Structure prediction request, 585 residues.
Amino acid sequence: MNIGILSSKSSDVNSSQSRCVLNEDNKQKSRLGKVFETSMVARRALLFIAMLGTCMLIGDGILTPSISVLSAMDGLRAPFPSISKSLVEALSAVVLFILFLLQKFGTSRVSFLFSPIMGAWTLSTPLVGIYSIIHHYPSIFKALSPYYIFHFFWRNGKEGWLMLGGTILCITGNFFYTYIAFLFTVYPSLILTYAGQTAYLIKNPNDHMDGFYKFIPKTIYWPIFIIATSAAVVASQSLISATFSVIKQSVVLDYFPRVKVVHTSSNKEGEVYSPEVNYILMVFCIAVILVFGDGQDIGNAFGVVVSLVMLITTILLTLVMIIIWRTPSLLVALYFIIFFMMEGVYVSAVLTKIPEGGWIPFAISFILAFIMFGWYYGRQRKIQYELTHKIDLGRLGMLLSDPSVQRVPGLCFFYTKIQNGLTPILGHYTKNMRSLHKVTIFTTLRYLLVPKVSPHERIVVKKLGLRGVYACVIQYGYADSLNLEGDNFVSQVLDSLQEHIENCSSLPSDHMPVQEEISELSEAKTAGVIHVRGKARFHIGKSTSFFDRFMLAFYEVLHKNCRPALPALGVPLPQCLEVGMFYEA
Prediction:
């Protein structure tokens, strides 16, 4: 989010009050919080863990659609044994292809179907499980006794530990519900379903490769197949939407290269769609099915990624409890020990599946983490340079007082995003062009997490104390159409400026007549309008370290191929000017 250069007395007061609150908070911070404040190593380790968890979640968005649709479509082979495995993979790829093509229409158009589908799945599968329990092995519930758990591990030892990797799929993918819904509907449904499958497998141990569809009675096979396939599509849709949301948040926080983000709902900020991300996910999902068509390999990969996401979530939530919530140490210890030990055991078991497909999420996560770190590193270096070389109003006044710098006719919108200052590209432009337009409006775009910004709050202007120099912040929400084309936008800004000038006419610092200043605005618009954007690149010198050479070169590749910082504003090309500048690395 870009923050404008506007400031006011009230904001200064609020800032001082905030600093007082922060100082009081700093006194009460925990030891761990102070460690993260003072140690760069600790902060980077935390950043790496958070990035790894984010990348694993994106990897989950690739594997979940693949394994869900492939497992559901594999049900065709039971009634039709002649159907080959390759045909099932091809049909699964077609289903995913259609699903990804429909993403641009948004989730809200079909979301009314999700609850009935998942409700049918939650109610039908336990009924089949109850039938299977009665028909095959009524005493299956004795497996819930801790005695059998202890006896299982005592008898199997290392083999029992390795078998935990096979049970991870039974407990993952089912935590997207509220706690009440999970405890009273989803969890009992899962227990009855898995108990029914287990009862069937006790009597039919050779069917362990396809335990779900084999334990369904033939009379209701096709209805369950339709429900299972629909539920797989819903689960895939959920992870795809979650991936869009994660990418969008990463872009907003400047941890991921800019991609196009479209809000598919006018009243829900979280419903987003990204064309680039959508088609990349589609290619990866289809590739996983066609290249790693064995459901067991994809299942191993899915188990690895989900169990690691759980473990990383536990670690991060523990840090939040300590640093932010300041939860009592006893409760933190109880939470961390219980969940970390339980999830750690599962992670240790699924890591043995890395050679058997478990390496897939690591490969995906490594690529994504490298992209995120490269972008983050480049952005930090660029921000560091801009903050140390920013142009303040005093320096701008000195530049304009130079006799060699001419104030040329016209109205210039100069885009900037530096907080409490102006981009160093302004100094580069003024020094080399030896000119600045008579009316120059330093414009900042501010994205707000609201659907639409009201018209009276959309444009905020301010005089900067120099003749013909103003600041303007354009605020817009995720459902606003940001279009700066034509006289409408220019007229709105000039009208806001005129009103602001008239309101400021009573201030003792304003020596310029109001009508003369307003006349200058009108003359500048008549002379012509131009929009100036900066485009900075890194200059890799001989003294630059090898690490900086490599990382900044990678950042330049990402920057060259990502979306521009300013959205598509609809500015006519003859009025658009890009000013380039090299930042020293």
Q: What stands out?
A: The mean pLDDT is 82. The two ends are 24 Å apart (CA to CA).
